[in-house]
Amino acid sequence: VQRLAETRQLALTDELTGLGNRRLFLRSLQHELSVTEREDRPRLAVLMVDLDRFKEVNDAFGHPVGDELLGQLGPRLRQTLRSTDVLARLGGDEFAVLLRHADSDYAIDVARRMSDVLRQPFALRQVSVHVGASVGIALAPEHGTDTDELLRCADVAMYRAKAGHTAVAVYDSSADTSRERLRLVEDLRDAIDNGSLTLHYQPQVDLRTGSVPSVEALLRWTHPERGAISPVEFIPLAEEARLMRPLTRLVLDRALGQCAQWLRRGTPVAVGVNLSATNLLDGDLPEQVQELLTIHGLPSALLILEITESTLMADPVLAHQVVCRLHALGVSIAVDDFGTGFSSLAYLRELPVDQLKLDRTFVAGLGKTASGRDTAIASSALSLGHALGMSVVAEGVEEPATLATLSDLGFDVAQGFYLGHPVPPDALHLGGRKELLAAEGASERIG
Ligand code: C2E
Ligand code: MG
Ligand code: MG
C-alpha cells in the first residue's frame, strides 16, 4: 500500500522542484471547478507564471545552473501563497497557481507579490542572476469554466504581460487576438486556393542608365471582409501555420509566369521573389524552382531570390546548402534588408550572394540634413558589396535628394516609392526612369 502511495505521489510531482506537476494542477483545477459548479461557491483564479530571461540563463551558464534556479523558485513563490493554494510546475520555466476563493483584486495582489519576489536576485552556486517573471491571470467563471479555457486565457494574459513589460496582466477578451488569428489562418488557407492573393511589382532602377532591369514581386492579400492585409501581418501567420511552402510556390509560379510574358513581349526584366525561413529548410526548393523555370521556359538568370539573415538563422547549415544549390541553378541570390541583422558579415563570407539590398532604414535619411552617419554606412556597404563582386541596391528611396546622393555615392540600383510603388503588372511602367534621374542633376551619369 505504501508503494502504491509513493508511485501516485511521484506521478503527480515535478522531479526537479518537488512541486506538483501539470497533471496534479489539472486535476486540482478540474476538481475545484466541479465543486464550484455544484455549490455555487466563490470564484477562483488561475495564474500563469513565466520567467523572463530563463533561456538566457540556460544559454549563458548551462542547464545545471538553470535547474538550480528553477529549484529555488518553488520556495520563493510558496511564501506568497496560502496553504490552500496550488502551485505547480507545468514544464520548462512555466509555473501555474490555482487560487481558491479569489477575486480579481486578490489575484492581482498575489501576482504582484510573485513578480516582486522573483525580481530579487537568485544566489546560485556560481553566479548571482536577476530574472523577473510575467504573470497572466484568468478568473473563473468570467473567463472560462473549464480547465482548457482557463489555462489558455491565463497564457494569453501572460504573453500580454510579457509583451507589454507590465509584469502582471489580467485576461482581457477584447485584447485576445488568438481566435481572430486562427480564423485568419483558415482564410489564408482558402486564399491560397481561391485566388484572392495577387502579386504587385515594384521597379528597381539602374542608376547609370535609368532602365528597369528588374522588379520585386510583393504579395498582396485582399481579404473579403477585412480588405487589404499587409504581408508584414500575414507572412508570419503563414510561417506559423506551415503555409509558407504552398504560398511561396504560388508566388514563384505567378512571378515566373509574368516574367515569361514580359520576355515574350520583348521587354525582358528579372523578377525578385522573397523567401521565408521555412523555404530554406525545404530541401526540395531547388528542384521546385528548376521545375517552374522549365515550365515557364525561362532562363534562370531572370530569377532573383531574396533572403534575409533571419531566414538563414533557423537552420544555418541546411539553409546554406539550399542557397548554394539555388545559386548553382544560375539563379541570383540577394540579401534583403541588409544591415538589420546581427551577423550580416559572417554570412557574406559563407554564401554565394550576388546582390546586397541595403535596408531602407539606412537609405531614407540620405540627402537630408545631418545624414553624415547614414552616408558613411551607405558608402561602406557599397564598397563592401563591390569588393565582394556584388551589386548593391538601395531600398526605400522616397525623395529626389536621396536618389541624388545614391547616384553620387555610386550605387548600382535603387528601389522605392519615388521611383515607383508596387503595382499590378498591367499598371507597371517598364520604360526607363531617366527623367527622374535627370531631374536631380544626376544626368551626367546616364549613358
Ligand atoms: P521587403 O522584401 O523588404 O519588401 C520591401 C517592402 O518595402 C515592401 O513592403 C514595399 O512595398 C516597401 N517599400 C518599397 N519602397 C518603399 C519606400 O520607398 N518607402 C517605404 N516606406 N516602403 C517601401 P510590403 O509589400 O508591405 O512587404 C513587406 C515585406 O513582406 C517584404 O519586405 C517581405 O519581407 C515580405 N513579403 C512580401 N511579399 C512576400 C512574398 O511573396 N514572400 C515572402 N516570403 N515575403 C514577402
Ligand atoms: Mg524583398
Ligand atoms: Mg527589404
Question: Could you characterize the architecture of this molecule?
Answer:
The chain is of the alpha/beta class and 447 residues long. 46% of the residues lie in helices and 19% in strands. It is built from 17 helices and 16 strands. The strands form three sheets. The protein has an eight-stranded mixed β-barrel with strand order 8-9-11-12-13-14-15-16, surrounded by four helices. A five-stranded mixed β-sheet has the order 2-3-1-6-7, with helices on both faces. β2 and β3 form a beta hairpin. α3 packs antiparallel against α4 and α9 packs parallel to α10. The chain is elongated, with a radius of gyration of 28 Å. The N and C termini lie far apart (94 Å). The C terminus is likely disordered. The structure holds ligand C2E and magnesium ion (2 copies). The site of ligand C2E has 22 residues, from β9, α8 and β13.
Separation of the first and last Cα atoms: 94 Å
Helix and strand content put the structural class at alpha/beta
Strand order of the largest sheet: 8-9-11-12-13-14-15-16
**Envelope shape:** elongated
State the share of residues found in helices, binned by percent: 40-55%
Q: What's the number of helices?
A: 17
* C-alpha-based Rg, rounded: 28 Å
Approximate strand percentage: 15-25%
Bound molecules: ligand C2E, magnesium ion
